């Protein structure tokens, strides 16, 4: 019996965000938006979902007079991502 894939991470954009954040200490909203090629509105909704699950931390501040949103992955998010990848590997290797 296969373990179920985390439905929160199974969505393409959320998986892309998590993959990106696994590689860096933190990332600005604009960088994530650019690298995932999505709209600001869609990204904002997906970041809210990941944040609500405790997978990422979202920090809002200002850079000069402009608002700045910075995201980083949490320990819970790292574990969830690693579990997701390991479960996916089981699906691939145990046909």
TrEMBL record:
Boundaries of every Winged helix DNA-binding domain copy: 13-92
Protein's UniProt keywords contain DNA-binding: yes
Q: What Pfam families does the database record attribute to this sequence?
A: HTH_34
Q: Name one GO molecular function term.
A: DNA binding
Note the Gene3D superfamilies from the entry.
Answer: Winged helix-like DNA-binding domain superfamily/Winged helix DNA-binding domain
Keywords carried by this UniProt record: DNA-binding
On the tree of life, the source organism's domain of life is: Bacteria
The record's section on InterPro entries has:
WH-like_DNA-bd_sf (IPR036388), WH_DNA-bd_dom (IPR027395), WH_DNA-bd_sf (IPR036390)
Q: What is this protein called?
A: DNA-binding transcriptional regulator, MarR family
Taxonomic source organism: Chryseolinea serpens
